[in-house]
Amino acid sequence: MSELTAAIIGGLSLGAVYSLVTLGIVIIFRATETFNFAHGSFMLLAALIVGRLQSHSGLPFALLALISLAIVGALGAMLFRFVLRSTIGRPHFVAVIATLGFAAAADGVIGIVFPQTEYTITIPGLSTGSIRIFGATFSVASLEISAFAVILTVALVLVFRFTSLGVRIRAAGQNSLLASQGGINVHWVYLGSWALACVLAGVAGIAYGSVNSVNQGIEGLALLAFPAALLGGLDSIPGSLIGGFGIGLIGGFVAAYIGGEYVTVVTYLVLLVVMLFLPHGIAGTRSVRRV
Amino acid sequence: MNENHEWNPGGTQHDTLHASAIEVRALSVAFGGLRALTDVSASVSADHIVAVIGPNGAGKTTLLNAICGLVPKAGGEVRHYGKDVTNAHPTKIAQRGVGRSFQDPRLIDSLSVLENVLCGAHTTIGYSLADQVIRRLKVGKAERKARANAKELLDLFSLADLADVAAGRLAYGPRKMVDIVRATISRPTVLLLDEPSSGLGRAERARIENMLLMINKEFQIPMMIVEHHMDLVHAVAHRVLGLASGSVALQGPTSEVLASEQFRATMTGEVPVREQKVATTDV
Amino acid sequence: MTSAITGTGSAVPARALDWRSLIKQRYLIIAIAFIAVAIITAGGSSYSTYIVDTILLAAIGAMALDLLMGTGGQVSIGNVAFLAGGAFATVWASRAGVPFPFDVIIGALACAAFGFLVGLPALRIRGMYLALATLAAFYLADFVGQQYQNNTVGAAGFFLKPVFTGTISQQSASWAWLLLGVLAATIILFSWLRNGRSGRAWRMIRDHEIAASIMGIPVSRYKLSLFVITSAIIGIQGGLTAHFTESVTYDSFTLSLSISVIAMILIGGLDSQAGPLIGAIVIITLPIFVPDIIGNFVGSSNASQDASNYSEVIYGALIMIFMIKAPKGLVGLIQAMGRKALSRWNGSRTSARPDPPTSKDIPVPSGTPEP
């Protein structure tokens, strides 16, 4: 029984964080039809900035988080502006390899600026201690973090769906020519999408880093979000919730019943299966092409 | 023709009992809900050039794609010298000798013109991947022969001085010509050309015209050509097939079709006026 | 042979990458490498010989990746899966009693089979999606290697006995000659494959896959054979590296390593003969020169500690720069300079026509889904 609970609740808990990261990946895909392989670097960077500033200065957490997210958002906008814009018109993998290069450079910078020491992030107001549910133990803080992630993700999904700003952003992603004729400044929408997605990555990184340790493992989270994005549907914003929780649950069950070291490989086998047999994911549009 | 045949410039092997190089019967193609072709029947005789004309979106390129095996069919059949190729794989259809050029010449920019032409000879150059490692002499001989043939063909069309030029540096006109040479090098049993003269000026159109006539008469290769330029159609085509909205609007010998009132109505959308002299519309 | 197909004596505009220059080129490359190895093994320190060995090893795998990505257009970021596969399979064979070099050959065969498996999804998946799918190969290899290692020797990893006898210096030198031989064989083999019918077929598949099938090219067969061949060669690098470093642990096979190989082929130049070797030289020597360069700018005493990090920053930036501005890499830049010099030498400017619209700019006709 405790394994089942660990699988379900643990899976959902992690799935909530996945959803947030996946949402960022979907937003970027809808904007520029590319993958951002540097997503994990943004997550880690944001967490490191907060972690380091928290231990070195007495500034309140909220301010540190804002600074960190502003930096990460700006970096994302720059990545779009200087790198992605130059690859328009060329096959998509060109942009993707460019993000890979950015990820390598970012990881190098991270390695220099934030040497080996591990940082911890303390979010004020977060509960301590653990709770037993049906025989399995969970840290209250991580459950609270997950709840926060879910709420944020759902809120954004609703914003995209129902507000006029959200509709305009979706339109720009759908058909940039029509959108620009409708008065939407497509370039700013793309720039904003990238900035927003990277901010979300930062939020997820900080959130995850507050209940786990701040290290390379955070980047691993982002790599697991790609299967989640494909599962939910690469161009489906609500799909990010489906994919995120789906991958989270799969991982939870695998970890509880087979072993933690199996999680990544199983998740990527799921990715393969989805790509081959359900390319548009669960909630994506049928015409998403794998070319 | 299959990959193991030696390079054989003079001969083609096909079933000459059937007169039609290509025969299309009641062909229908649909993309989702959109009917691209409805009940199209047409044929290309073994020595003819058939021009396919029609307004944009009429389904002309789709017809070529259907014959090549690139799109699934909703009904009807396609025969190549009598053999049913309706559901055949495009590679198999190509290996039977159905050659194709595209409206936008898909060349390999980083390779020379000669190398690009040799791409078209893939099915007729007779060595395998393994041969490339263990039978170098055979490979060398086959390559030399193929290159000589390619050079000869380029020379025939006055393109020999472009042989070593990187394809990416060619202007649009030469690109289209190289594409046609590439499609011809393997001496296909039928050639499908998609707008070979689109985007070209009068002088280059004349060159294309000569190329097509030479390919048809000297090499006895029948063709189906999608065209918008009526002067070219008039000069090279034996028969004309007119498509509009996915159906056959008219069909027949060139001179008859181009002079008919149906033609003007179909192509220009005008109501035919009896007194007006028929002019060749240069679309 | 070459004279029979020589063009006229007049200035030929814009010499293309044609087979004649390649035939001369490969022997030139091998000769230069031979001379370099001879000089360094004779006079250099064992450290510099070690660097040469590392470069030669890296170049072997880089050549394979270039054949896969540069010539064949199959985007693979999980290529380190085959390094791991080759290393672990070689270790397994070695522990089963198979002597060097046959254990490496077994490793290569195992990777060939693995490559076939990885190639199967590639038949239906392309571009950036394929890149993502190759990550699955990486995680699979990583997982299998991890399990194998943990179940046999534990975290310390596998250790192999030295292949050569003698002092460290002599062993490094022996390795240099062996690796030079392997690299030379790879260069020659690849030039045979890249210059013939298969090279044209792979490039056609890379640039216009649908048009390729229209020409009678059996696309699936060529894609699979490409994956099999390149995986086997990368596997050979893995197996040789295992013997060279005399140790194998699963955590040495990281995504960073994959990215560094991509950097090599991008910097050197995609679909080129000399590119992978040039790229390997740049990437491998970067951590050596970087501390000195950085030290001048930053004056930090940590420069040498952070050498690998600084290198990562540099080659990450280089990936972006080359991918965007110069996909033909250093080889392409050198060729362009050579062309400019040639045209000035001939006294007249080459064709004054502006660059023609490439096929990428012109929209594809409807009904033909094309990348």
- Counting helices, strands and paired strands, the structural category of chain C is mainly alpha
Rounded to the nearest angstrom, the distance between the terminal CA atoms of chain C is: 39 Å
- Nearest-angstrom radius of gyration of chain C? 22 Å
The number of distinct structural domains of chain C comes to 2
The portion of residues forming beta strands of chain C comes to: under 5%
The average pLDDT score of chain C comes to 83
Proportion in helices of chain C: over 70%
Mean pLDDT of chain A: 86
Number of domains of chain A: 1
Largest two-chain interface:
B-C, 63 and 50 residues
Rounded to an integer, what's the Rg of chain A over CA atoms?
19 Å
Q: Please tally the β strands of chain A and state the result.
A: 2
Describe the model.
The complex is a heterotrimer of chains A (291), B (283) and C (371). With 291 residues, chain A is an all-alpha fold. Chain A has helices spanning 2-32, 39-56, 61-83, 92-113, 140-162, 164-174, 176-181, 186-211, 217-232, 239-257, 263-277; strands at residues 130-133, 136-139. Chain A has one domain (13-216). Chain A has a two-stranded antiparallel sheet. By secondary structure, chain B is of the alpha/beta class. Helix content of chain B is 35%, strand content 22%. Chain B has helices at residues 60-68, 90-95, 113-120, 131-134, 136-156, 172-184, 202-218, 230-236, 254-259, 261-268, and strands spanning 20-31, 34-45, 49-53, 75-80, 83-84, 98-101, 190-194, 223-226, 239-244, 247-253. With 371 residues, chain C is mainly α. The longest helix of chain C has 28 residues, at 168-195. The interface between B and C is large, with 63 and 50 residues.
Offer a few descriptive terms.
heterotrimer, A: 291 residues, mainly alpha, two-stranded antiparallel sheet, C: 371 residues, 2 domains, 13 helices, 2 strands, disordered N terminus, disordered C terminus
How do the strands and helices of this protein lay out in sequence?
The complex is a heterotrimer of chains A (291), B (283) and C (371).
Chain A: H1 2-32, H2 39-56, H3 61-83, H4 92-113, E1 130-133, E2 136-139, H5 140-162, H6 164-174, H7 176-181, H8 186-211, H9 217-232, H10 239-257, H11 263-277
Antiparallel strand pairs in A: 1-2
Helix pairs in contact in A: 1-5, 1-8, 1-9, 1-10, 2-3, 2-4, 2-8, 2-9, 3-8, 5-6, 5-8, 9-10, 9-11, 10-11
Chain B: E1 20-31, E2 34-45, E3 49-53, H1 60-68, E4 75-80, E5 83-84, H2 90-95, E6 98-101, H3 113-120, H4 131-134, H5 136-156, H6 172-184, E7 190-194, H7 202-218, E8 223-226, H8 230-236, E9 239-244, E10 247-253, H9 254-259, H10 261-268
Parallel strand pairs in B: 3-8, 3-9, 6-7, 7-8
Antiparallel strand pairs in B: 1-2, 1-4, 4-5, 9-10
Helix pairs in contact in B: 3-5, 3-6
Chain C: H1 19-43, H2 46-71, H3 80-95, H4 102-122, H5 127-152, E1 158-159, H6 168-195, H7 197-207, H8 209-214, H9 219-245, E2 247-248, H10 255-268, H11 275-298, H12 307-325, H13 329-345
Antiparallel strand pairs in C: 1-2
Helix pairs in contact in C: 1-6, 2-6, 2-9, 2-10, 2-11, 3-4, 3-5, 3-9, 4-9, 7-9, 10-11, 10-12, 10-13, 11-12
